[in-house]
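Input for the complex:
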Amino acid sequence: MTAAVSLTELSHGYNGKTALPALADINLEIPSGQFTALIGPSGCGKSTLLRLLAGLLTPSSGEILVNGIKPAKAAAAHQFLWMAQKPALLPWLTVEGNLQLARRMLSGGKLRDYSNKDILEMVGLAESLVQYPYQLSGGMQQRLALARLMLLDAPLWLMDEPFAALDELTREHITAEFGTLWRLSTPAVLWVTHHIHEAIRLADRILVLSPRPGRIIGDILVDIPRPRVESSPAFQTLLVEVRSVLSLQLNGARQ
Amino acid sequence: MSGRKSALIAWVIVLVFFIAWEIGVRLFNLPVYLLPSPSKVFVTLSQNVPMYWLASLITLGEALTGLVLGLLTGFLLASALVMKPGLEGGVITLAILVKSTPMVAIAPLLTIWLGFGTLPKVLITALLTFFPALVNILNGLSQPDPALLDLFHSWDARRRDIFLNLRLPSALPHIFTSLKICAPLAMIGAVVAEWTGASGGLGRVMWLAYTNLNLPYLFGAIFILAVFGVVIYWSIDRLEKRVVFWQVINDVELEK
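Predicted:
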């Protein structure tokens, strides 16, 4: 089966490979259906990696394959969906208008059978059909961004700290809801986050990136059955393990 | 401060200004050929309503046609530059060239070439308004929210779809800004063009009044132009609040 993501000897630098290196020698394969969390210190190239995968940047060297094809072709074939920290909603369109626009833009891909109303019900926005984004709370805005993921049967979701701007309580709620939505079709997910707890709660695998230029220095499997309880010994053990990898790399960077 | 309260303050300031002017003219016994009192100007206005009405219609017609032409040219050029970015250097240089040529030099030329009719006035107004329209609209079309642009690119949206669904609505506030800048410019353009030779219009009235030292007539036209300026600006502002409603809400949120 084709891997959802395949990276070979990937390096990337801004203003050329050597000027400001962001990522170095990344070799990675994410099988289809795997939920992978990507963590690392600020500026380590997590978001750059996601932008490279989405075809928003061209790598300085190495090869990127998304579902077996180059990112630009994968975008044209609607093989992935993108979600970032900002909900990226069109302020002049209503909740339904935003969803409908995404549906129209993705019409070349494998659209699911859900109607707009079905999807908005799934994310708890059925009552807000005719409201505008400015009338929604931050959490509701991100729910609407989530709703766009339900439109398409894409094999890969690229998530760049999608809930980082929300308050703790809302983030916990919406993350749980996201888990439910993900389980409906289990696409591969590459989830950039700063939160170790969130990574363990959600992911099948955690990748740890070193400070700039980002290299993969930790590849940890999360072998805990879902739903995951934070107080469980397995959760705590993993928490310690991820923390130790992170602190090792930070100490290394300081020295 | 509420809108109603600030409007009231503005009216009070205008009223105080007129009263001070009236008192000043009477107190210093200024001759009417130097500075007529506001009451004298209002009497002149009320005694010549048909004449001012016709002149206003001519000037307004020229200004609005020129404004639409200038804005449309600016918009079409800005759109072309966004769709084909390579053209930007050449077109902007040409636009700056047009902008830098003084209108007072071009206006008589156009009158000589095209006569005393409406066309040269419309062209001058369009030339005067097109540059600010081009710069503002280009600015708006080329700077949509980067997060939204990323989203559209991740959808592999076509350039035309990005333009219609993202760039154009994002540029609406800029389009209104250029309208607010260009509408008064259009009035100035039409009046200045009429000064250089015309068969009618407020500029023509002003020119005749000036050559005859009939200052109440001249001030009558100035008053009308000032009122048009305020009404046009206010109308654009109201329309903007309706059309670009999300921007208004954001501004209110920021003020809080």
